[in-house]
Design a protein that fits this description.
Layout: H1 3-15, E1 27-29, E2 50-62, E3 72-83, H2 91-109, E4 121-124, E5 133-136, E6 147-158
Parallel strand pairs: 1-2
Antiparallel strand pairs: 2-3, 3-6, 4-6, 5-6
């Protein structure tokens, strides 16, 4: 199994989600674009589209204990989703939407039936998954500034 297959599967799963609030404003992956693409941090200027990407934080690292290889490898990924300035009418509404989206994303990724058989992922996100955080990005609008939601995902897979 390669980490690329796992990333592709995560992208497919997130792209296929229908947001609870604003179902027409779907998740759009920056990796789907052809040619040069501005970084996700620069996608904070208005609109209603939830842009996302996946970056590698660590790994793959042998998950063996006491120095004995276990043939299981862990890799840390981060799913980053932007919510542009003015995405919602105010901060409370924006925070509720972000919370709903996070529950949908994490819930979907934790379902073993949602992983294709060719990916022998043993576990996703259940190993020390820290709480998602939200950080400001870009030029901020006072009532509903642009933010990025960071969701750390820990993959555990066999070779």
């Amino acid at each position: 199994m390669t980490a690329r297959l796992a990333k592709d599967q995560i992208i497919t799963r997130v792209r296929g989600l229908t947001p609870t609030t604003s179902p027409l404003d779907t998740f759009v992956c920056l990796d789907d674009a052809d040619g040069p693409v501005p970084p996700l941090e620069e996608r904070a200027a208005g609109g209603a589209v939830r842009h996302f990407d996946i970056i590698t934080l660590s790994g793959p690292v042998d998950d063996g204990q006491a120095g004995v290889t276990s043939l299981r490898y862990a890799e840390g990924l981060q799913l980053r989703v932007t919510y542009p300035a003015g995405f919602a009418s105010d901060r409370a509404e924006r925070d509720r939407i972000i919370s709903e989206d996070t529950v949908s994303i994490v819930g979907d990724l934790r379902q073993p039936d949602n992983w294709v058989a060719s990916i022998d992922t043993l576990n996703i996100g259940l190993r020390n998954m820290p709480a998602p955080i939200t950080i400001p990005v870009g030029d901020n609008e006072p009532n509903a500034p642009a933010v990025m939601r960071l969701i750390n995902i820990n993959l555990l897979f066999t070779t």
